[in-house]
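Assess the record.
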Amino acid sequence: MFGDPIAAITVESVFESFRADLARAIPRVVSGLLFVVVAYLGIEIVTAVLRSALGRIYGDDQALIADLLVLIVTVFLWFGSGLTLLSILGMGAIAASLGTAAGFIALGISYALSNMIADTVAGVYLLRDPDFNPGDTVTTESVTGTVESIGLRKSRLRLGDGDVVVLANRNVESRWTLTSEPGPE
């Protein structure tokens, strides 16, 4: 089969084309690898600084808020880095398509998880509220009890009979009244 001069020229031209494409791709791959290293270091630095700053702002009692914010920022930074890497590697159209698709997917997810997002936002407000703390007795729309714990998505209230009621934060934060604060110990 390779005795045919036309086939030999075709095989030779394919290998030559492959070699030329490989030679053109090497600088992009090296640039991509360098970018990944720099992006990794940059994201680690930004994450550490953000975690430190949020730790000072929120303290240990509200570490959930800081962890959530750091996670959100980290995901966005890595996603942006991934799109940038695709552009560096010469796949800008794919990066643009992925960015657009991710926007539509995020819109769908946010709609599907709207109650969970509402609970999380309300949880952040409740955790930051100086008048809503574990040990306080509060009345919500449905129950009166002592705040046992406050999470990002739900709060637990201990009723007078000892039962614990778990309420979605969006239901607590929208309407609650402080009945009494814990006394000094």
